[in-house]
Give the backbone structure.
Amino acid sequence: MTANLLDFDLEGLALFCERLGEKRFRATQLFRWIHQKGAASFGEMTDLAKSLREKLATTAHIKGLDVISRQISADGTIKWLFDVGDGNAVEAVFIPEEDRGTLCVSSQAGCAVGCRFCSTGHQGFSRNLTTGEIIAQLWFAEHFLRHHLGRQDRIITNVVMMGMGEPLQNYNELIPALRIMLDDHGYGLSRRRVTVSTSGVVPMMDRLAQDCPVALAVSLHAPNDALRDNLVPLNRKYPIAELMAACNRYLLHAPRDFITFEYCMLDGVNDQPEHAQQLIALVRQYATGGVWCKFNLIPFNPFPQSGLVRSPQSQVLAFAKILSDAGIVTTVRKTRGDDIDAACGQLAGDVKDRTRVGERITQQRTVMLTPVMSRDRKPEGM
Ligand code: SAH
Ligand code: SF4
């Protein structure tokens, strides 16, 4: 089998080129063709010698993911469902804002952590994505959007690893993907604009700090172990005290001087004033000086099997006020794309239920762009 070049960061590609008897700088050219120009075939890489292109054609390929469906929300959010084989699918969501374009990327098909409020967690774990499958989401979305918007400049300015899966439980595949995102010859994203979100895999937070310190978001969701054990089962392995200590260690290497705590607001479960007070005490206990965290309150996005209810907006605002009054910067996440189930925690990727996918496509309210690309084609127009 030939190598999929989407699997390699620049260093990996350089080693691959060396094995072909080529100079390392060829890897940089190749890498730029793939990630900056969206090339999916060697024939179009006109500044590479024909002999090299022929050699590549017999040893390598560039293969993205098949798109099963694309949905466009009334607010401009776009969700793609990608086929990753064996009946599994993963989702990526593009969220346009005035000053940025954010892509929410998946790291696993399903998730083994099994948080109670998360539909991916309810689905169970299927498998880790490869580096190529993680980066294919960005590769596809960036070049698809450039083509359709008729732009040459970068459209996706931020990546959040907040799609399906726990990125730090797929560490070895995640790191090269992050490096490709950051590489100036790749997507050239700043470390501050690439965020890994984790439910708290403590040892891997320490490794990430060393290997590839990007912005970090930690899914806290509860102010004490009893409640967190129940909502985020991983807490039984890495309880809050260990998690807080790991956050403090991470800050020594982080590109930002704060950690974002995500907190999903569940009616009557974790949204009471006493929970906010406990959070304040927790943050103060671990503060080593100055501001070190921000809170992002996420209105719960319900799904049928959860048995949980979204906190009323008034409750969310009251909770935010208690934290803010204590000097903790707190934001309430705007829910985007909820008309197409693209909001946090609604990503289920149930490809087995194809009738539902079909239904969704016909219900699509906004304009279709163009037909989705197939496996062997490069992003359209490139
Ligand atoms: N596994 C990682 C990243 C993916 S989940 C993590 O847990 O951090 C991304 C964010 O969406 C997390 O903060 C997660 O807690 C939140 N989330 C999951 N299900 C949700 C739901 N139903 N409503 C709102 N937010 C949810
Ligand atoms: Fe996994 Fe994150 Fe969902 Fe928890 S919230 S089940 S860690 S994807």
